[in-house]
Write a structure and sequence with these properties.
About 65% of the residues lie in helices and about 0% in strands. It is mainly α and about 100 residues long. Helix 4 crosses helix 7, helix 5 (about 55-65) packs across helix 6 and helix 6 (about 70-75) packs antiparallel against helix 7.
């Protein structure tokens, strides 16, 4: 189960992401790319790498069952962090990575 799935199911807290990243590093990445281990799309991963505070919004979008970019767009007028993340998300929304 990925980090994001574990947070959504209540088995992990968003604050535990550093521990998950450390565990991935300690394993030598045998479970695949970090973004897969954490459960991020390329788009989400690109935004999270640039702005760690994106994590709460990634999880929020997943819980709401909506696209990450759409989720930020729906919040940006009343949420300063979402307003800061939205243009970054717009820039990366087509990212698909090397896979």
């Amino acid at each position: 189960m990925s980090f994001v799935d574990s947070v959504i199911s209540g088995d992990a807290e968003v604050e535990e992401i550093s521990e998950w990243v450390a565990e991935w590093h300690d394993s030598g990445g045998v479970s695949g790319p970090l973004r897969t281990y954490l459960g991020f799309s390329w788009h989400e991963y690109a935004v999270w790498v640039l702005k760690g505070e994106a994590l709460e919004y990634i999880v929020g979008a997943r819980r709401a069952g909506v696209d990450f970019n759409e989720y930020l767009a729906s919040l940006k007028d009343g949420d300063l962090v979402a307003a800061e993340l939205f243009p970054i998300s717009e820039l990366h929304k087509g990212d698909v990575g090397p896979e």
